[in-house]
Amino acid sequence: MKKYLSFFRIRFVNGLQYRTAAYAGIATQFAWGFMEILIFKAFYNADAAAFPMEFSQLSSYIWLQQAFLALFMLWFLDNEIFSAISSGNIAYELSRPIDLYFMWFTKNLAIRLSKAVLRCMPILIVAAFLPSPYGIVLPFSFLGFLAFLAAMLLALFTVVAFSMLIYIATFYTLSPLGIRIVALSLTEFLSGAVIPLPFLPDNVRKIVEATPFASMQNLPLRIYSGNIAGSEMLRGISLQVFWLTVLVLAGRLWIKKALKNVVVQGG
Amino acid sequence: MIELKNINKTFKIAKRNAGLSEALKALFKKEYTCVHALRDVSFSIGNGEMVGYIGPNGAGKSSTVKIMSGILHPDSGECIIDGLIPWEDRREHVRHIGVVFGQRSQLWWDVPVIDSFELIRDIYRINSTSYRNNFEELVSTLELADIVRTPARQLSLGQRMRCEIAASLLHSPSILFLDEPTIGLDAVSKIAVREFIKRINHEHKTTVILTTHDMQDIEALTERILLIGKGQILLDGSLSELKKRNSSYRTITLEFNTGNFAEIPGITLNNIIDGHAVFHIDTGMISVSSAISELSRSADITDISVTGATAEEMVVSLYEEFKI
Q1: Residue pair B6/B21 in contact by the 8 Å Cβ criterion
Q2: pTM across the whole model
Q3: B248-308: in CATH 3.30.70
């Protein structure tokens, strides 16, 4: 366990040194957040009753999403892993007494957390001071806040477990490009990154909410704003645990199989 | 103790001819050819031995090293290293081996080398006393004191390679695999690396398996040679045996003022540039002294030297002999 922790630590500290990238990220996220809120404002002005979420709930959803983008967005993938596989540098990682799956998992967690830590505070603070209903509201309830934290952690793990499948697929395709584009555009939509899932038509929403994608950002963000609470919240968190287990098991089986046939590229 | 028995490995390689229409065809039907990277490779290496593993590019050297280090699964055959099957007990096995791939880097690019070392310490769970001892020994013998605090990306190739070797020895492995450790190094670094390899083999009785194209590496380091070509072990013997095989050949180098060399049986002119000529003598056909007298009759010689075959030439003649 200690080796994964020290791996996490060194990776996390390393991630904190990219400050300029963080400033640029914060600026982008502000611009994006304001743009989304303004677009939704135009819709809400037309007919507020036609929408499934209150506007203030939606604002919280968007600001939290922007603040914790690095935790939730599938497209924050680690290019080092892709190049290690396609160039054959993975030979070194395989010559260590370490479990490749858990090492990559830890690495991804560390990268995402270091990015999020650098970026979240400025966005959360500014969003907290924005006039209602454009800013972020206080959590629905204290219990709800705790549930939000738990769901956020589970969501992060689910996102990483899903990314692991994309990395492992690269053992077979060698170029990560195709699979990345397909997987990313699909999840972008199904996880509620483009529009919150309640905005989907009811039948579609029910199906999407059962998929692992809804266990990513959709759940924690809606728990925070009180859009999901009570038994529905418990059901959501259980579903997260279920999908996380399935994804991790699938990933571990698959990587075992892939390593058996692995061809270390290059001489 | 390393034992390989009848190891086979085949790679499937996608092939297509050049051109757009061929590329389109390949979209629907891919043609594969099987390349037998290793055929019935068997050998055994005792503890504390130092073995040079040589062969032309693509002969299967790296594949063998990858199998022995647990990275690659062979199609068939047995490999037992210190009682473990590398690819099945990978994590237990790699604890006891060190690997250096000369063409890759295990150091973390953006952080000082010492951070990579400490990560390796945690990965192998090296206790702090033996880490400190190993670290100090490696830093002093490889002269790393000035560079361990520098990020890997700012090191020269020679400096980096010294750090790579240190990194794979921190956990005091009993076997060290070196895959082209001197590739691209300048003369000074090469000698430093060789001296160091000799030293750890001597002092720590570390088994060393070295693949290289640099025959000076082989001459300086190993007594035993394994020659592989087209996936098969062709020769397993000592360097001096190999030299004996080639003992019927001598090279004569001449410096001369004027001269005109006629064809003489047993003497082949290898190279001639104004005033400098190299001949190969087949001592089975002509003795060295009569070759010299024949040559001195044809030219006004100012300097002459006779040498046996270099390791380089021996390997070339082996490659020719086995047609690889």
Answers
A1: no
A2: 0.83
A3: yes
